[in-house]
Structures are given as C-alpha cells and as structure tokens.
Amino acid sequence: MMFGAANLLRSDTQLNQRSYYEASVQRPPPQAPLQEALQADVVVIGAGFAGLSAALDLAQKGLDVVVLEADRVGSGASGRNGGQAIVGFASGQGPFEAQLGAGDAQRAWDLSVQAVDLLQERMREHQIDGDWVSGYLYVADGSKKVPALRAEAEFLQSQGIAVDWAEGDDVQRHIRSPRYRASVRESRSGHLHPLKYALGLARAAQAAGVRLFEGSAVTALDRGAVVCAHTAQGQVRARFAVLAGNCLLPVHGPAVAPEIAPRIMPVGTYMVATPPLEPDLCERLIPSNAAVCDNNFVLDYFRFSADHRMLFGGRVSYTTMTPPGLSALMQRRMAQVFPDLADVPVAFTWGGFVDISMNRAPDFGRLGSNVYYLQGFSGHGVALTGMAGRLVAEAITAQDGRFDVFARLKHHRFPGGPLLRTPTLALGMLWHRMRDVLF
Predict the structure, then answer these.
(1) What are phi and psi of 359, to 5 degrees?
(2) Residue 44 and residue 67: Cα distance in Å, rounded?
C-alpha cells in the first residue's frame, strides 16, 4: 500500500494522464509561477471550484485577491470528476439535524439547492460553455435497496422538488438497463463538463482582477494579524487566507494546517470514457440524457458527454493504490449496467483523489480569525464548492452569517493515526462493499 505523501502526489498526477476532460479542452498557456513578494487582501490556496469561486466573489466585492495553485487550474478533483451537480450532501441530512437542529439543517439543505442554481447562474453570467444538461436519475440495483430510494424520493418531494418515480418494468422509461429495480428522476440537479467550467471560472476571476499563479505550491503559512503564504520562489502577505486545496493541501505543505488535515482522507476515484456512440443509442439507453447514480455505498455513476461518449465512474480505492487492470474492470462494470455496450472499447481511463470526511458532511471553518478552510466535500462538490466559495466571501466581507451554518458542524479525526488510519478505513470499506453485493 502507498501511504507516503510523495507516493500520493505521484499517483494522483499519473492517474490524470489519460483524462477525457483534458483531451477535450484547449487550455490557455500556463500562468507563470509566483517569483516575488506580493501584498493582497486575500490569498487563496487552490485553483479548483471552491478557491476560484471564492476568489471571483471576493474580487467582485472589490478585494485584491491572489490565487496560488500547486499544479494547474482544475488539475485536481475539480477538473476530473463525474461532472454531476447534485442537490444535498453525501452525508444526507443526518449530521445536520443531529448537530444543528431542524432549522439550520433546513438552511443547509436549501443552500445545497441554491448551489446548483448558483453554478448555472455563473455559467450564464460569465458565458462559460460547460455543456450543462438538467436532469438527474437515482437508481436502486436490488429490491432491498428500493425502500431507501423511495424515502429519498419522498424527501425530495417534501422539499418542493418534483420527482418521477418508477419501479419494476416501468424503470425502462428512465434507463434501458436490466440492472435496476427502481428509479427516481428529478430536474433540479444535472451534469456538465467540469474542466470547461473550472477554466471558465478562472477566466472570470482574472477578468475581475484576480492574480493567478500556477505551479506555486504553498509550503508554509505564517499566521497572525497578517498571514504570509510561502512558495518555493515567492510569498504573499494578506489580511485573510482561504485554504481550498483539499486532500492535496497537506501533501505540498504539511505544516500549513496540520490541525485540519486528519479530518479528511484521500480516496481514489476512477472513470472511463468510450469513443463517441451513435446518438440514437444514447437516447435509447438514457432517454432524458440525465446523469445517473445508484444508491450503493460504493456506487456507480455515469452519463453521456456532449459528444455522445459514455462517461462511467465507480470503484474506489481507500489505500491510494490504483486497482490493477482498471480499464478492463471498469469496462466490465459498464457492460453489466448496459449490455449493449459490452463490445464498446474504452478510449480514456483516468482518476484522482477526492477528500472525504468521517461523517461525509462538508468541513468548513476558521483557524483563528482570518484563515478559512473548505474541505470534506466527499464526492458532492461539483455544486457545493461554488456555494462554499460564496459563503467564505460573505464571511470575509462581514455580510452574512451563512458560513457559520456549516462551521458549527463538528468533525472527528479518522482513527488510527498517520500509519494505521488508511488500512483501517480500507477494511471498513471492504465491509460496505460486501453489503452492497449481498443486499
């Protein structure tokens, strides 16, 4: 197993070498790394969805913002994920209701719905062509999983979200697959090309005056009334800092925020893309062109791209070791869902690491009075990261207390310490995989 930071970073970089998303965009020339000492109102660490969203909103409020990115814009989870923008949280409402009470749990849910709206609003406002498609389909692949899916449908309805329920043979209206016993479709969520969106956010932020530096990993952060972020060749002094590097933040700078790093774990996630398929076949398999996700603990998620490729994600690694024979493994999984694709080859295989928290709820908060952090999106970050950026911008400019709805959530460290927490988690996930198969 691979536990070291250097191995994690090397694995993360290698996993993204054959990404469909990277192959389907034209990146601008790299931004030069930071090579001087700068002053700013806010320094943002990480140029993914959360960091760029915070930077954009802060700049629009008139603050001077510098963004430092260790690699390139969207090179982490933001630019390589499933592209599914979903209402709600990976944790469900449980942690919010237990810790915050019914009122603030409802506020958190409402913010998750507004996050999807905000994503679309930013695309319109800044003319970002992100291949957005409305529509989301939740499915259950076993009869014992149908009650949980029905409960999810009832909850969505209670929140004013229209749903279309199907069970048994009626599921074929939504998805032509022999695998699923029930489905529920809603139109508030949807899907997009995540890297196109990340690059569009970066353009919008720079147009608003944000100074962006790539290849500028933050290795140390001096805290105090004024913070100072250090890179290999420069530094930024600012009144505020926003930490948006997720699970790779401690890899580059172990001393940047050591108190929050043990509360998240890196989890490897993987995707494949087929060659372009016939549009008629795509329409037959998923008539509404919705994104799809099952309700297993270790789940499959998939959708069609704008150029009619099946983008299929699933299988995770809790050891940071890439599963052997990944392309063939994913192709077999895809064929189990869609027998019509059994002979379709895999054109792209890629992956990377996302951060999960112990209870799968997002982990937002402050260190002192002027260092904010955003982490623990746990696979539900495509939309929520954008709202997180807005909330931290509001908190810094003292406009609103919505950030504190999330900051009040308490989070625990993963058990086992630096050496044992990864194998401990891997054993726990093996149990969940067995439950998915048996039930």
Answers:
(1) -100, 5
(2) 5
Residue reference for tokens 């076949």: 281
Both ends of the chain: CA-CA distance in Å? 29
Name residue 268's amino acid: G
Quick: pLDDT tens for 141-155.
999 999 999 999 999
Note whether 266 and 247 are within 8 A (CB): yes
The Cα–Cα gap between 305 and 402 comes to 34
> Where in the chain are the domains?
5-81+195-263+358-417
Which CATH number does 5-81+195-263+358-417 carry?
Answer: 3.50.50.60
Q: How far apart are CA 31 and CA 143, in angstroms?
A: 52
The low-confidence residues of the chain, meaning pLDDT below 70, are 1-14, 16, 318-321, 416-439
